[in-house]
Design goal:
- This protein is α+β, with helices and mostly antiparallel strands and about 150 residues long.
- The chain has 2 domains: about 80 residues, Orthogonal Bundle (Arc Repressor Mutant, subunit A), CATH 1.10.10.10; about 45 residues, Ferric-uptake regulator, C-terminal dimerisarion domain (Dna Ligase, domain 1, 2-Layer Sandwich).
- About 40% of the residues lie in helices and about 15% in strands.
- It is built from 5 helices and 5 strands.
- The strands form 2 sheets. The protein has a 3-stranded mixed β-sheet with strand order 4-3-5, with no helix packed on it.
- α1 packs across α2 and α3 packs across α4.
- It binds zinc ion (2 copies).
């Protein structure tokens, strides 16, 4: 694993890091965005836009449409606050919003638990292989399906 100052955040620290990151990018940390982030970070497994909309609706005491949640999740993914787990069609909060990695996800087919790995050597290899084929990689998606240690 590449060595650099790499902080994984959770709870209030993660929320603060996410808010800082968004504001640094010239975006506003609105109540609605904060509510979506809180809901996302509160899930222990990847959550769909619908799961998050439901959670935010409960928290805010009024119906929030999945569409508006989608737009905010898009902004979060684009700003490195969240990651999309493609094979689960769902999102997770990014535990290191301040630094860029090609995150690797291990997804349990039995319980849905998703473990997050960063191995820049491995993801760099994928980028290099793509470049070797004359392909410019913008976002390698590295997801491994299988069985987690709780389920095996
Ligand atoms: Zn990562
Ligand atoms: Zn499992």
């Amino acid at each position: 694993m590449a060595q650099h100052a790499h902080q994984l955040h959770q709870g209030d620290a993660l929320r603060d890091a996410a808010a800082r990151r968004l504001v640094d990018r010239g975006e506003q940390w609105t109540d609605m965005r904060a509510a979506v982030f809180d809901a996302l970070a509160g899930f222990t497994k990847p959550a769909s836009a619908y799961d998050i909309a439901e959670q935010v609706s409960k928290a805010r005491g009024r119906r929030v449409a999945a569409n508006s949640v989608y737009r905010i999740l898009d902004l979060f993914v684009g700003s490195n606050l969240a990651r999309r787990v493609e094979s689960a069609n769902a999102y997770v909060a990014n535990a290191h919003p301040g630094c860029l990695h090609d995150c690797i996800f291990l997804i349990c087919d039995t319980c849905g638990q998703t473990t997050h790995l960063d191995d820049d050597r491995l993801s760099g290899g994928v980028r290099e292989a793509a470049a070797g084929a004359g392909f410019e990689a913008t976002r390698p998606v590295i997801e491994v399906r299988g069985t987690c240690s709780d389920c095996s």
